[in-house]
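Standup notes
- DV: blocked on the single-chain target, sequence here:
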Amino acid sequence: MRTLASIMRTLASFVLALLIGLAAASPAFARVVVMQTSAALENHTEPAIERALREALDVALDGAVAMGLSWMRVDRARVLDDAVVVWVVASDEEMDDSDDAGGIELERETI
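- DV (later): unblocked, structure below
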């Protein structure tokens, strides 16, 4: 018959191996945010819409960079009477969306 000390050593070894296994297999969680930005629209000409869209995307890009996120994709955009509204999804790691055309890697030069 095994001694109590032998049983405790076996149990301690099992618990230690279990804790090491759990620590090594811990999942990595990505930070994901959905942002809505808008920009004023002067009129409904194509250059004005393009300008407002770029402005709204610049604001979203600045927000993503400020949060330390490195990947972003445009979810949707709408042209309203007086504004362009853009929804973007940003993450700190590349997302795998099968129905998505792909995201863009954020690269912003600091001046």
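- Follow-up: Helices lie at 4-24, 46-66.
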